[in-house]
Amino acid sequence: MFLLDTDALSFSGPTSALNERERARWHDWIRAHHEDIHMSVVTIMEVRFGVERLLRKGATSKANRLKSWIVALEVAHRDRLVKVDASIAHHAGVLLAKAEAKGFSPSTEDALIAASAALNSFTLITRNHRDMSAMIDDCMDPLSLG
């Protein structure tokens, strides 16, 4: 089972920076593991924040594409959405302290996603290996999958 970090999920989005070959490999991996892939509600918040920033800057077309994309993903993952509860919040606090003790300062959002992966025994798929691996061991780079 896998939990996609926001940065990895964005590879499937309308503004993906992947080249054609990387995008094809990523989509192949997603199709092969579709039923085992989960998404955090924190990711919805992060993408929605990005949408609102784009709207504020007047980038309406891009914002609307991202908004439609995240809503579609939310519907597609409705049975595989990981919600934040008290145990995840507590564990995120522990993970933030663990990372800080190692000299790292991940965001609260990253800690919530890492805690969600850890408490659900999911492998976290992330490009932010530096901060995430300071909190949990089971994380993989999406561009090394395939």
**Number of contiguous helices:** 7
CATH homology superfamily: 5'-nuclease
Poorly predicted ranges: none
Strands ordered across the widest β-sheet? 3-2-1-4-5
Class by alpha and beta content: alpha/beta
- What's the total number of strands? 5
- The arrangement of helices and strands along the chain is EHHEHHEHHEHE
Q: What's the CATH first level? A: Alpha Beta
Number of domains: 1
In CATH, the topology is named Rossmann fold
Shape: globular
**Biggest sheet overview:** 5 strands, parallel
The assigned CATH architecture is 3-Layer(aba) Sandwich
- Rounded to the nearest angstrom, the radius of gyration is 15 Å
Q: What's the end-to-end separation, in Å?
A: 15 Å
Share of residues in helices: 55-70%
The overall pLDDT average reads: 94
Sheet-strand content, in percent, reads 5-15%
Please, could you describe this protein's structure?
The structure is a single chain. By secondary structure, the protein is an alpha/beta fold. It has one domain (2-144): 5'-nuclease (Rossmann fold, 3-Layer(aba) Sandwich). It is 57% helix and 10% strand. The chain has 7 helices and 5 strands. It has helices spanning 6-9, 20-33, 41-56, 60-76, 86-101, 108-119, 129-132; strands spanning 2-4, 37-40, 81-82, 123-125, 139-140. Strands 3-2-1-4-5 form a 5-stranded parallel β-sheet. α3 (41-56) packs antiparallel against α4. The longest helix is centred in the middle third of the chain and has 17 residues, at 60-76. It starts with a strand and ends in a 6-residue tail after the last strand.
